[in-house]
Amino acid sequence: MYSKKFSLVKYIAAAICLIALFATNTFGQTISLKGQWRFKIDAKDEGVQAKWYATKLPETVNLPGSMAENLKGDEITLKTKWTGSIYDSSYFYHPRLEKYRQPGNLKIPFWLTPAKHYTGAAWYQKEVEIPADWKGQRVVLSLEYPHSQTRVWIDDIEIGTQYTFVVAQNFELPSSLKGGKHTITLLIDNRIKAINVGPDSHSLTDHTQGNWNGVVGKIFLKAGSPVYFDDVQVYPDLKHKSAKIKITLKGPARVSSSGTITLSAKSFNTKNIVGVKPLSLAYQLKNGIATVEVNYPMGDKIVTWDEFDPALYRLSASLVADDGKKDEKQIQFGMREFKAVGRRFEINGRPVFLRGTVNNCEFPLTAYPSMDVAAWQRIFKISKAHGLNHMRFHSWCPPEAAFIAADLSGFYLQPEGPSWANHGTSIGEGKPVDEFIYDETNRMAKNYGNYASFCMMAYGNEPRGKQVEYLTKFNNYWKAKDSRRLYTGASVGGSWPVIPNNEFMVRAGARGLDWAKRPESISTYAKQIEQFSVPFVAHEMGQYCVFPNFEEMKKYTGVYKPKNFEMFQEDLADHDMADQAKNFLMASGKLQVLCYKNEIEKALRTPNYNGYQLLSLNDYPGQGTALVGVLDAFWDEKGYITAKAFKRFSNSTVPLLRVPKFVYSNNESLVAGVEVAHFGKAPLVNANLLWTIKDEKGLVLAKGSFLQKTIPVANGVNIGDINFNFSSIQKATKLNLELSIQGTEFANDWDFWVYPSVLPKLKTNFYYTTDLDEQAKKVLDEGGNVFLNAAGKVVKGKEVVQTFLPVFWNTSWFKMRPPHTQGILCDPKHPAFTNFPTENHSDMQWWEIVNKAQVMNLEDFPSGFKPIVQPIDTWFLNRKLALVLEARVGKGKLIISSANLSPDILDSPAAQQLYFSLQQYMMSEKFDPKYEVTYSTIKDIFQSPSKIQFDTFTKDSPDELKPKPKTN
């Protein structure tokens, strides 16, 4: 503070001097080291013995950057030693895939293909001019995100070695370093050595970011005071409107020093800036270290941080030693308390429901995570636009830029230790990884612990070994050490053992859709979670596949190339379906959305359910290529749903409808219960819920409202019932029911189908049969028409398992585990559907027709042939399939259905209606099949198996499919 007696001139002069001191050596000078570095690969590990640090390396690269970005490393071949598991070896052996194994046409299906690949040692070298006035200062070399073990030399003096996946590596240079020209040499090694976190861990695997070598973040030298802030941690206390500040100071060993620390803070992203009264305290440094702890009053008017109002403070801690040396450290933090209260989460005393996605480190342009705050803000902005408020980082910890962006965005994060200790490693068995997990999570807490968004933490993903004992101790360690966040031992599937002292559960078991039974919106996951007394979050919810978006390939302008997509596209063309790729994407996408909507709604209506983590909102490019996102790997929309539409059923507030089914006959009534899941900023006072029922033309058939009601922050809030009699509907009709909360953005809707309970008896002019018998051949030979109900009789295509649900994750990673299809494609304008309202994709009315129905493999049908109803096959095989087809056979015309469509269908109004519509079509002048197919080709569907069968050529299976050993 300056005296009021200071003249204006003296004040300005003093301010200029202060700024000058700050910009030079008082608080540190910085020299950027980005740009060109000398380089050499050390594939034979000869560089240390040959003293490469004392030689001039011959090549050059640019840093920040990876070797692949600099086109350094090995060409991709069939013998490339990838970092990551491969369970489906059919690619390496199957004859039909041989052309994709050829040099010049190498296309790998398991993940994206980098420009170059290298695991091993590589050397980086740069000359730097050290200023003379840095003498006597502490000089640090900072490397953000090297991958992953780094040894450093300054000239011919080795400085040290560091190994981490989670924070910047900082190396203190010798205090005797003189000004002038010096050479900095880095030896970076990205191999898995003694510390094995698991080759499928997202911190290093080729399935996601790739096991790259280099330095990709900030690179600089910094000079500053020898006495400095080593650590400052802020522990908010909302109840007392204060923050406990824990400070660690360091200096030269065997040096004692004293001085004053001044703390000051103010909000920086609020409408009105809230300042905090500065606080000064003395420190005493003994033997190069001092710890100071103080309670810092934040004032009467504190601002708190959450998803709705992410108010942040910036704490400035300044140090002035008695000898005049100075240091300063700035810390971003938020006043918030994220707790588990019984079976629910609370943020600042208010219930919170986590609507999350899993981040698997997909960065297809660089193959490593962005170091840029703006890039992470984009990711969180897109996630929030889809109604999400949470992100889990699967077996990796993001860089500091992600925490800064999440703080600003109001997003709850669950970073994890960099380990999936399952495939190739384990925990709790005395391996080096055991201690490394503690080291890494401590580094995470020290460097990122002040960020308000850092709300949860786990060791990592799905381990094996003595996991209960190890993770129980891990939880106890962290609960005692740092109460600012919640801890769970690991994020796991449903078959992993329960860690008893988890503060929250991230588990499977209470997820998925039981669509082996008729779809409904009444059931919950309550039974599956009743055993847990802490908050429950669904692990990796969803995983519903869509067909590849080949238009996405042009986006891969960086280090990765979509050779997997190229392979799938070429294979699709080889199977005569190249022109259907976009339709397959859109139709499978609509089914994916239907599945996500129903699963999320089921979670929202479950009592004591506290969140879900989708796997994931965007595509996962590894593990066989898992196209499970409604967004692509670039976080862009694919065209079949918008963020606004997704947010209707995944938001802080979601109207919900309880119905026993979605398909009705017109002698029934809709009896629907209405409720709301509300996890907003505050209760909705006197909320007015409206409902509307419309037909496909937008005609309002009925509407109404409920008594105004204050909706608390909770789910399962009952609003009332809707009753609507369908008797006025005389023909097959699709209806839409919408619920909305007046004066808000909150709305949701559902489609229903109503069919006549009694259909006209038709005098048909075709032959109906369940066998391709002699009478059928005779009718066709004589120019007649035949309807063949082939349900249960198909041989060619018998191996294809179809359910209403689509492929899970992908068929390669799980060795062709069923189901194998991704919904159906049809043309709603086809006259066969005149009396059966449908879109071009699977919807609820198709469930009773499609679920578990056989499909036909049309591998021998004429080029260009398209069936009436076409199941979409897994893109790893791209078989042309049919559920309903039409063809000219001999002189006659034929329709075949491998779904059970017949005159005797009972309790299946949709199947009954589709059969009626097909009958009407066959008796009309519009029944005019485009393609002619020989009788022998038709007959072969019921005699010969498919020519190409799936074979993994491996005996092993993913650990996810193996029986789990019993543990205590």
UniProtKB/TrEMBL annotation:
<dbReference type="InterPro" id="IPR017853">
    <property type="entry name" value="GH"/>
</dbReference>
<dbReference type="InterPro" id="IPR050347">
    <property type="entry name" value="Bact_Beta-galactosidase"/>
</dbReference>
<feature type="domain" description="Glycosyl hydrolases family 2 sugar binding">
    <location>
        <begin position="32"/>
        <end position="216"/>
    </location>
</feature>
<keyword id="KW-0326">Glycosidase</keyword>
<dbReference type="InterPro" id="IPR006102">
    <property type="entry name" value="Ig-like_GH2"/>
</dbReference>
<dbReference type="GO" id="GO:0009341">
    <property type="term" value="C:beta-galactosidase complex"/>
</dbReference>
<protein>
    <recommendedName>
        <fullName>beta-galactosidase</fullName>
        <ecNumber>3.2.1.23</ecNumber>
    </recommendedName>
</protein>
<dbReference type="InterPro" id="IPR008979">
    <property type="entry name" value="Galactose-bd-like_sf"/>
</dbReference>
<feature type="domain" description="Glycoside hydrolase family 2 immunoglobulin-like beta-sandwich">
    <location>
        <begin position="227"/>
        <end position="336"/>
    </location>
</feature>
<dbReference type="InterPro" id="IPR006104">
    <property type="entry name" value="Glyco_hydro_2_N"/>
</dbReference>
<dbReference type="InterPro" id="IPR036156">
    <property type="entry name" value="Beta-gal/glucu_dom_sf"/>
</dbReference>
<dbReference type="GO" id="GO:0005990">
    <property type="term" value="P:lactose catabolic process"/>
</dbReference>
<keyword id="KW-0378">Hydrolase</keyword>
<dbReference type="GO" id="GO:0004565">
    <property type="term" value="F:beta-galactosidase activity"/>
</dbReference>
<dbReference type="Pfam" id="PF02837">
    <property type="entry name" value="Glyco_hydro_2_N"/>
</dbReference>
<dbReference type="Pfam" id="PF00703">
    <property type="entry name" value="Glyco_hydro_2"/>
</dbReference>
<comment type="similarity">
    <text>Belongs to the glycosyl hydrolase 2 family.</text>
</comment>
